[in-house]
Amino acid sequence: ITYNDNAMIDVLWVMKYTATGKNHFEPLQQLLGAEAQKAIDKGVDCILKTQYYQGNTLTVWCAQHDSKTLQPAKARAFELPSLSGHESVPILRFLMSIDQPSADIKKAIHAGVAWLEAAKIKGYKVQDIADPAQPKGRDRVIVPDSNAVIWARFYDLKTNQPFFTGRDSQPKAT
Q1: Orientation angle between helical segments 7-20 and 26-50, nearest 10 degrees
Q2: Residue 34 belongs to what H/E stretch?
C-alpha cells in the first residue's frame, strides 16, 4: 500500500472529484460517481486500518505498508519502515476534507495531528543552496531558524526519533 509520494492520496482526490463532480469532473460524475464513492470508502477504510499504533497510542502513517499485514514495509532502499511526517500530512488533509466524518475518521485526525505536534522539530528550516559538486548544481540543507518548524520525513517506529537514510539502507541520526 503506497502512501509514498502521495500515490494513494492523489488517486483518492481524483475519485473524490469524480464522485462530487468538482474541479471540472462534472462529466464523469453521472457516469462514474457511484463507483468513485465506493473507491473512496474502501480507500478511507484502508487508511484507518494502516494508521500505526505504538502500543496503545495511535500515531500517523508510514510511506509504505504491506498489503496483507498492513504493517509498515520497506519501499526503496532509502525508505525504511518508519512513521512518515511527509506522507501523513496529505493523508490528514484528505481525511479532513470528508463531509460528516465518522467517529473513526475524527479519531484518526486527532491522533495524527497530536503526533505531528509532538514530533515537530523547532528552530530549523529547509533551504536550497548552490552546490557545484552536486549533479544538479544544488543541494538541500537544514539551517537554523528560530522561527521555523519542520518535520522529518522518517521517524523510528518505536522511539519517534527522526532519521535519514541513503541508498545503503542504514538509518542515521544526522
Answers
A1: 140
A2: helix 26-50
Are 31 and 19 within 8 A, CB to CB?
A: no
**Beta-strand relationship, 53-54 and 121-130:** unpaired
pTM (2 decimals)? 0.91
Distances 48 to 14, 41, 52, 78 between C-alpha atoms, Å? 19, 11, 9, 25
Q: Please, what sign has the CA dihedral across residues 146, 147, 152, 155?
A: positive
CB 8 within 8 Å of CB 1: yes
- Residues 162-173 pLDDT 10s: 998 888 999 999
What residues does 162 pair with on adjacent strands?
155
Question: How far is 158 from 53, CA to CA, in rounded Å?
Answer: 10
Instruction: Mention every residue, 6+ apart, whose C-beta is less than 8 A from residue 102.
Output: none
Cα 5 to chain centroid, rounded:
8
Query: Is there a contact between 89 and 116 (Cβ–Cβ < 8 Å)?
Result: yes
